[in-house]
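Exam revision sheet. Question 4 asks you to relate a sequence to its structure. Input first:
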Amino acid sequence: MRPGVARATLAVRTMTVPAPRAALPPALPGRRRTLELRGFGSVSWYEDEPATGAGPSPPLLLVHSINAAASAYEMMPLYAHYRRVRAVYAIDLPGYGFSARPDRRYDPRLMTDALHALVAEIRRERGGEPVEALALSLSTEFLARAAVERPADYRGLALVSPTGFGGAQLREGPAGGHYGRPGVLEFLRALGLRRAVFGLLTRRNVIRYFLKRTFGSESIDPGLLDYDFLTTRPPGAEYAPLHFLSGFLFSRDSGTLYRSLAAPVWLVHGERGDFVRYRGLAALADRRNFSVDVFPTGALPYFERPQEFIDRYDAWRSATRAH
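Answer key, structure tokens:
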């Protein structure tokens, strides 16, 4: 058994959640549910499928990115499409959306354990069927860790604008290590500074600025901007982002994880904006299970070219099943 797997074999409790009374509206349609992640609290997710059933496709899990204003809304175009043709799930990672936002340590282990818990619940409810999963940006590192620790859980992985490829060499540091800087975190956590820094980062014009850098153009998605602003308002919204800013959510061993993946992998990135440096992809040239696709977009190609993205993704899925 790989390190961390035993600790992530978690007792979970699921329930149907009534319409939220908080100011934050649901990010996605369908049913919202929660489970209890031991040692953390509630983890929320959205799920839906066609009224006539999911058909032959395995369930699809969508995982949003990590940033100051992250949310499951980042998966909207894909969720909206696939809910019509297959069972689809979209998680609120710990510290985001309707998941608990306690003042505690946020690190790759916590995020990976949340994925383990939700995938275990999906498989329990769907007769043990493995899932396909798609993650965005930094969350590709958590998904890679989950798939390395529990390879039987995953039939295929899509990594969209993945992190850890900017340098010529992949990260191959200590297993389970991160880049957290406790001194920076404590400095940011000082009560006045904590509120000031997070308040500055989540002003509407600042969120718009970072979305423009992500899209690599002025043409950002207005719905994403609106929800990004709303999801930063609830109590505790700053705790996970401050750990992100302090380096605690970046894995030192992401390169080792990527190279250890056994499932078929579709790796996608764009050509515009801040997320276009992928020199490290050369280190995966010998990995026959990796397919790389490039879109003439920013870091969210399925927002800019949703049908083209879906067509290419489905073509890749069909090709991997044929082998």
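Marking note for examiners. The domain at 15-322 is CATH 3.40.50.1820 (Rossmann fold).
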